[in-house]
Structure formats: structure tokens, C-alpha cells
């Protein structure tokens, strides 16, 4: 076989495999849209579940997920950004930074169910938050911290050092340089990381399983210490342990569709922002 | 204005500067020339302590600016950098408006007086020969300017905080010939108010703009004299070889 044909065949295989990956995604999407689109309506999005979750909507779960996203990001975003600033701007290449970076990556590879159990032990029991938005947000916040740190660090690294030296040479302090030059320049990419974390948080089930999620709670939370329903957990419940699984099947697909729509739109938004910059 | 005494400087184990002593007088233009890696930029960055930003460096000897040893513990580096401004090889304006770029140094040094800032911005832009080109678009982004204009903006930015010394690290090496000649004219006109030290690869440039020239090689100051002596009758053979282009 000559080199040219060999190359043609090799690249054909590579392309096929690449397309296969995209194909799987479209298959899942198509499957969920096909099965779920029929139940999506204004009522579905704004009403509480009814008749043993075989009818009605998923509004409490949407609201709960939004609460958890807001709570976890509020906790994790400032901590993550400041850690990344410390690691990239202040600490140089010292062993402290290498240690933090390795540990951050390790934190990111811990299975999410472990976060769930840890959150239950620490936040729910030891700190006495109970099953609550607060406990769930803390747990999800920990889970998403490595992602925020990494994306922030990447965006800080992308800023050429000439901007920093330019500012320092004008008598600015390091903190002023970071506040007035580095962070504003890194901002679009940091926001991209933030949006990716929102997508991640809204889809996680295991961390909220023992820390906040309610099986059935058709009302809105009234404080940080309330339990809430959440989309991923609701999906799990009606698919496995509802009162009438067959009857609630379309609702499960509808819930999955809403969840995927939220996560995908967050990712798309992040991708668009990255391109705009 | 600047006195360096027995300067030795190390990057880790590598000795970048060897026993350099030099005096630079006020209101003169001094050029540092020499082959790449000869230490001329390292020596320049000693004067506003930019080398502090690099890890694992070591300095012996004394460096005095206006009679004060700038490496004493009690010296505030940001105060020193207000006195000793710097322009870099590649124009590095901030992603802010033209006005805010020039005002930046004033703002970070705690100046709030709007009238003073506006006046200082205008005067600095005039001193940097940029005012006429930008006076109607001060609110526009600095990135809309050409490379040569950006470099003059960086000079204006350095001038705004009223330094007495201006360090220029190959300020024209990234610019086209027309922009380069503008920068050179500018250096000439700034001499009456500032002490200027310029590192350059371009020997014609050194000959055109400077009063005194120092020739560096392998971390040593080979020869330091009036520019016309360096170029017309250098004392050392190495200098002669370099300026006639036999190496480097």
C-alpha cells in the first residue's frame, strides 16, 4: 500500500471516530427531546408536581436548583478566584503553590458521592445546618472550587507579563496592578469559568443527595435552612422510586430535557463569551 | 545623578554583570550598546529595581540614584519607580482609554485631583509629541493607536508622574523607521528635563541620540566615554571590532 492511500485510510478512520463522539451526543439529545418535548409547556415549568408526581410540573425543582447554583457559586467564586490570584500572582513557583495546585487537582478528581457524604458529615451533622440549602451549597461549592481555581489560573496566565511590569514600573503596588490591570483583563475568561461551574453544579446529583434534596416538597424555600427539590435528584426519584413509574415516565423525560437545556445553554454561553473576547 | 559602584549581579549561578562602575550625569542621554546577552538591559533594570521581579537573583555593590543607595532596606520601591520611569521594548499600553493610560500612574499614586490629572495628561502627551494626534480621541482605546503612537503613549505615561530619570529598553526596536525617528527626536527634546538612559541594538541610533555611550560585552563594561569618542576613536580593540561590525 502506498503512503498516500495509507494516510487516506488512517484519516478516514480518525474522522469516523471523531464523528462517532458527536453522534453519541446527538443521539442522547435526540432521544431526550423526542421523548420529553411533549410534556414541556408553560404549566410544566411553573406548576408543582401533582397526583403522586405523575402529573403537574417541576417548578419547585427548578427553583431549588437555581437556589443551589446561586448559593454554591456565591461561596466558591470569591474563594476560588482569590486562591488563583494568590497562586499565580503572589506565590511564584514556591513549594506552597505546587502543593496547593496538586491538592486542588486531587480535590477535583474526588468522586462526587464522596463530596456528598463529606458534606453530610460536616455541614449537615457536625455544623448542624441540617438538610438545607446552606449545607447543599457548601458541598456543591467545594465540588466546583477546583474548576473555578483552574479556569481562573489559566485566564491569569494568559495575560502577558508586560502589562504587569508596565504597571509596576509606574510605581503601582502588586495589589493595584492586580486590581486595575490584571483582573479586568482576565475578567471575560474568569466569567467563562464561572458559567462552566454553574453548568456543573446544576447537573450534580450525588453531592445534594444527603445534604439538601427533598423527595417531594411542592413549595418554595423560605430560608437558607430550608430543604428544596432539585432537578437532577427529582429526575432520579421519578425514574426509580415514584409512586407510579410508568405514569411519570414522560415527566422524567421532560425534567431531563429541562436539565440538559440549562447545562447546555450555560456551556454555549461560556463558549460564546470566550469567542467574543 | 546615577552612580553604580562595583556592581556584580547574578541570575542563580550565572554572573550577568561583572564589577561595573559608572556615573551618569543629569540631563544627558546615555546609550548602552553591546551584543545580545551582554548584560546591558540587566544593568538598566537595576536603576528602577525591575530585576527584583525575577526570582533567585543576587546583587553586590552599590547603586545610587540622586545620592541615595536604592538597594537599602528602607527604600520604598514604588517611590523609587516614581522617580525612575521606564519605557519597554514592546509598547505595552493598558487596555484602557488613551486618557486613562496616561492618568494611571497618577491614580495608583493616590492623586485624585481631577483638574491636576487632566492638566498632567495633556502636558505629558504634549511632551511625548502625541497630543496633536490624539487630543480629539482621548476616550478611545489605546489599542486603536499605531505601534509608534502606542510607544509614545507609553512615554507619556511614564512622564505623567514627573520622574527625573527615564530608562528606555530598546524603545524603538519594534517600530518602523518613521516611528523610530519620531522617538529619537523625542529623546532629543526630553533631554533638557530628564536624564535618559537608553539600551539599543542599533549603533546608528546610539550615535544619533546619545551624549555618552557604554559598550558592554559578556557582563563587563568594556568602555564608557563620550559618544563621539566611542564611535570615532575607541580605545579598546573590542569596541572597535563591535562598532565596525566585525562581530556581534
Please describe the topology of this protein.
The complex is a heterodimer of chains A (277) and B (248).
Chain A: H1 3-36, H2 42-46, E1 49-50, E2 55-56, H3 59-90, H4 95-108, H5 112-126, H6 133-157, H7 161-168, H8 174-203, H9 206-209, H10 231-240, H11 245-276
Antiparallel strand pairs in A: 1-2
Helix pairs in contact in A: 1-11, 3-6, 3-8, 4-6, 5-6, 6-8, 7-8, 8-11, 10-11
Chain B: E1 2-11, E2 14-24, E3 29-33, H1 40-46, E4 57-65, E5 68-69, H2 77-83, E6 84-87, H3 98-108, H4 114-127, H5 131-134, H6 147-159, E7 165-169, H7 177-190, E8 195-199, H8 203-209, E9 212-217, E10 220-226, H9 227-232, H10 237-243
Parallel strand pairs in B: 3-8, 3-9, 6-7, 7-8
Antiparallel strand pairs in B: 1-2, 1-4, 4-5, 9-10
Shape of chain B: globular
In CATH, the architecture of the domain at 59-231 in chain A is Orthogonal Bundle
Low-confidence stretches of chain B are none
CATH class of chain B: Alpha Beta
| Percentage of β-strand residues of chain B | 25-35%
From the N-terminal CA to the C-terminal CA of chain B, the straight-line distance is 31 Å
How much helical structure, as a percent, in the residues of chain A? over 70%
What is the average per-residue confidence, as pLDDT of chain A, rounded to a whole number? 90
Fold-level CATH name of chain B: Rossmann fold
Number of helices of chain B: 10
CATH topology of the domain at 59-231 in chain A: MetI-like fold
CATH homologous superfamily name of chain B?
Answer: P-loop containing nucleotide triphosphate hydrolases
Query: How many beta strands in the DSSP annotation of chain B?
Result: 10
The spatial strand order of the largest sheet of chain B comes to: 6-7-8-3-9-10
Indicate how many domains the architecture of chain B comprises.
Answer: 1
